[in-house]
Amino acid sequence: MVTLSGGGDLVLLYTARDNVTVWSSNSSAAAPAAVAQLHDNGNLMLTSEAGAVVWQSFEHPTNTFISEMRTGRDLRTGAVWSLSSWRDADDPSAGDFRYDMDTSGSPELHIWREGRKTYRTGPWNGVRFSGIPEMTTFEDMFEFRFTDTADEVSYGYRDRVGSPPSRVVLNESGVMQRMVWDRATGAWNTFWSGPRDQCDSYGLCGAFGVCNVVDAIVCSCVHGFQQRSPAEWRMRDASGGCARRTPLRCGDDSDGFYALRGVKLPETHGSSVDAGASLEECGRRCLSNCNCTAYAASDIRGGGAGTGCIQWFVDLMDTRFVDGGQDLFVRLALSDLENTKTKKFPAVIATVITGFALLALLIGFLIWRTMFDDILRGECPTYHLEVIRAATGGFCPKNEIGRGGFGIVYKGEMPDGQEVAVKKLSTENRVQGLKEFKNEVALIAKLQHRNLVRLLGCCIHCSERILVYEYMSNKSLDTFIFDPRRHATLSWKKRMDIILGIARGLLYLHQDSRHTMIHRDLKAANVLLDEDMVAKISDFGIAKLFSSIGDSQDSTVIERIVGTYGYMSPEYAMDGLVSFMQDVYSLGVLLLEIVSGRRNQRSFNLIAHAWKLFEENKSLELLDPAVHDGCSLAELEQAVTCIQVGLLCVQESPSQRPKMAVVIPMLSHQQAPRRPLRPVVCTLVSTPVDLLDVLDDTSSNVELTITNIEGR
C-alpha cells in the first residue's frame, strides 16, 4: 500500500507484515508534504502547503527514463540523476549496471558495471552524442534536450506531438534500449540499443587504438603508432593499446596533426573544452601546448568542420569508426606525417591497380551489411564472444543440450547468474545456417508472446554467429511425450495446457504479430517447456515472413524444401507450396502425437491409425494409456475433440483445413468441429532423391508420395 505519512513522507507499506515500511521518499526533512499528485506525464510529485515541490519521482529514476525526464547532475546541490538496472527481468532490486553522466570533460553518458566502465556514448556535439549517429534519425519523433550551464549538466528528451510514447531502459544485461510503443501490435519496438557491437566495448583497442567493426580484426593503431605488445595483439588482446613510432619533440615546427575522420571522439575525461574558440584556433592552441595530444570540434551544429574546441592531454582511449562520425586531429611527429605524404603517389597507383578488387570487396561488404543490417541497427541486444565463452565453459561438450541442422545448443550461465541457451552456428553448414541466423534474429527480436521463446541477444564475432535464448529447464516436448519413463508425468490437464499454448503461439505468428509469418518446422522438438511447463514455440530459422495478413489460401512456391518428415503438408512436400495452412497441418500431427504419446514415423503411420480409430468410433483408444485412467469424463471428451481437430488439420486440401483463429475455439469447446474427411499421408518410398534439408531420424534424403487412407 502506498500512502502519505503523517510526517509528510510518501511510504510503501507491506500490509501482510503489519504495515512494515518497504520504501520511503525521505522527503520530510526538507519540508512536510501535504499533497501527492501523479501528473499526466508520469511524474509523481509531493508538494508542500505552499505549493513548493518537496520530492518528485522524475528525479529518482530506477532502470527507465521517459519523456521529460533527465539524466545528469545538479551542480549546485550535487544531486545525480542516473539509472540502475534491475537484478533480472523479474527482480526490480538494483542490479550490476549504472547509467550516468560524466561531466569531468565534455559531457557524455557512461554505463558502469560494479565500478568498471563498460560503455560510453561519446561527448555531446551540439546535435547528438558523437558515438550515436542514429540519433539524427529520431528527430522527427523526439526533441532532444541537452543542458550545460553553471547550475546543471543534463540530457533528456520530449516526445513530439503526435509521436507514440517512448522510453529508455537500462536492461539487466547492461544494454541501453530506446523503445517506442507500437499501437498496432501493442508491443514495444526497439529503435536503438547500446552497446551494439564489440567496438562499443569500452577500451577494447587500448590507448591510441581505433576500432572498426567491419574489419575482420577490429582493432588497429592510429597512423603514426604501433602495437605496444605484438604478442598480445596476436592473441586478439589489444587492450594494451599502441605506442608512438616517433617521439614528439615539441617546438621548432617539429609536430603536426593527422586527421582521423569519421570517428566517435575519444573519452574526454581530463580534456579541456572552449565552446567559443574556432577549430583553427583550437589547432594552434594544441600545437603550442606540448602536453596536447589531439583536438576536435566541440559543436557541429553549424556544419562544415564544426566550431568550439576540445583538447586532449592524455592518451586517446575508446575511439571507433562510426557512420557520420567526427574528425579527430591527432598530434604526430612531422617525420610520420611526411612519410604519409611520400606514400601518396604509390598509394594512388596501387588504388588504380587494385580498383576491381576493391570494388569486389565493397560489393561483398554491402551483401554482408544487408544480411546483418537488422542486427547492426540494434534489433536485439548483442553479447561479446568472451561473455558467451565464459557462460558455456568454452562451449564445453558437457554443457551441450541439443543439436540440429543449424548447429549445437549449449546451456550457459551469464555473469549475473541467469541461465541461458546458446545456439552456435555450425561451420559445416555455414551457407544455410547463416541465412537461418539472420532470419531468427530479424524475426524473433520483434516477437513478444507468452508462448514463443524469448531471444535475449546475439553475437557476431569474425566467423562466429551465436543466438542467446532464455533457458527452458524442462527442455523440449518430445523428451516427455516420447519417453516411456517420463510421459506419465504429463497429465491430461498439462497436455491440454500445452496444446492450447502451442495454438495461441501459432495464432500470434499467423495473425496477431505485426510481421505475420509461417514457422515451417513446427514439431515436438521445437516446442520448449519452461519450469512451469508453459509451452513456447522455438527455432524460427526457416520461418517464412509474410508482409501482411493474407487469406489462408494465399501461397507461394519455393525451390528449397526444408522441414521435418512426418510434419510436412502434402502440397509443401510435393510442390513446394508455402502457406499458413502448412503450419496448421504440422499442428494437426502434433495434436495427435500429444494425445497418443506416439511419434508419426516410417514404422508407424500415426495419421492412418488415428483415422482408422475415428472411423470405427474408437478414438479414445488413441489416448496415451499412461493418462487414460486418470481422466475425468470431461477430459476424455476433450481428448476426442483434440483428435477430431487434429484430423481436420491434416486434410489433403489446404482449403479444408481450419484457420488458427478457428482452431482455438474448437479446442476450447466454444465451437463444435465439423467431421473431417479422409486425409492423405506423406509416406516414404525406397528410392532416394535430392530433397533438400528434410530431417528424419535415419535419413536426410528421401522421396515422398501421397497415399490415400482407406477406411475398413
UniProtKB/TrEMBL annotation:
GO cellular component, one term: plasma membrane
Cross-referenced Pfam families: B_lectin, PAN_2, PK_Tyr_Ser-Thr, S_locus_glycop
Protein name from the UniProt record: Receptor-like serine/threonine-protein kinase
One Gene Ontology biological process: response to other organism
Ranges where the Apple domain occurs: 250-333
Bulb-type lectin domain ranges (all copies): 1-59
GO molecular function: ATP binding; protein serine/threonine kinase activity
Binding site for ATP: K424
